[in-house]
Amino acid sequence: MPIRIPEALPAFGTLENENIFVMSEKRADTQDIRPLKIAILNLMPTKIVTETQLLRLLSNTPLQVEITLLKTQSYTSKNTSQEHLESFYRNFDDVKHMKFDGLIITGAPIEDKEYEDVAYWKEICDIFEWSEKNVYSCFYICWAALAALYYYHGIEKVALPEKLSGVFRHKVKKPAHPVVRGFDQYFYAPHSRHYGVRTEDIKAHDDEIDILASGEKTGVYIAASKDMRKIYVTGHSEYDHDTLKNEYFRDFAKGMNPHVPDNYFPYDDPEREPVNIWRGHAHLLYSNWLNYVVYQRTPYDLGSI
């Protein structure tokens, strides 16, 4: 079924060329169904790339998905044009009177900062608090997952010995859980981060949080609150096949001497084109969240959240 986005959004043409069913807002308004209302708080600097990645994964749903793109108002992105932001993004103040079936909060390249030192931390806290009564289920990615675990449970992030960059194997811990339903017992997903959380710190909250998948090198990858209204994902299943490649060469050009991402380039040779071995998992993760958590559980009347 279609994903509903403005026809002028750059992602519209990209997804349409991939034969993904996207629907203009004008056409969607003629259909007499209630779409799933999903907000995306995009904290990534390359917003157009990230929004396209996420919209691609939100396309396999049982109903229309109506997307609201959000940006921080306490910090202005320097890597995306103001024209794009003003055309397609809204501030939290614009939507805080509204209710949503789901909210996705992306990662952000601010891991080295203490949470309280992040320019928009207060705004993030306000959004966390608002979402408790205005969003049925939240999906936190990478930095946002660490931040939410800290905000809701007091779980501290820990610095890793070196940047975790590459495509890593994970094992499903609770195969009957709706979020990982249909996953292979072992599967792969990309990570790109300098920080993580200790598995034992999450296990200390096992009356509130289920660990759904983890990896030997990555630690906890997917976790969920018992009521599935909070989904924590520490990696980047949404990444394109060349995202880690672009990050590697970007850091290399800056003289940062990055290590070659693990299990990514064929024969660990950066001159070879990487192969996407996580696409199936990525689509299943997002469709499971949309179907089994958001669509199946959200009240039809969003006012009753």
What attributes characterize this protein structure?
Rossmann fold, 305 residues, globular, alpha/beta, twelve-stranded mixed beta sheet
Please name the CATH topology: Rossmann fold
Report how far the terminal alpha carbons are from each other: 25 Å
What integer is the average pLDDT? 91
* Name of the CATH class: Alpha Beta
Count of discrete domains = 1
Secondary structure tally, helices: 10
Description:
This protein is an alpha/beta fold and 305 residues long. The chain has one domain: Rossmann fold, CATH 3.40.50.880. The protein is built from ten helices and twelve strands. Strands 1, 2, 3, 4, 5, 6, 7, 8, 9, 10, 11 and 12 form a twelve-stranded mixed sheet that branches. α1 (10-17) links the parallel β1 and β2 (22-23). α1 (10-17) crosses α3 (47-57). The two termini are 25 Å apart.
Topology, pairings included?
Blueprint: E1 3-4, H1 10-17, E2 22-23, H2 25-28, E3 36-41, H3 47-57, E4 65-71, H4 82-88, E5 89-91, H5 92-95, E6 100-105, H6 121-134, E7 135-141, H7 143-153, E8 158-172, E9 186-196, H8 199-203, E10 209-215, E11 219-225, E12 230-233, H9 243-253, H10 279-297
Parallel strand pairs: 1-2, 1-4, 3-4, 3-6, 4-5, 6-7, 7-12
Antiparallel strand pairs: 8-9, 8-10, 10-11, 11-12
What's a concise summary of this model?
The protein has 305 residues and is α/β, with parallel strands linked by helices.
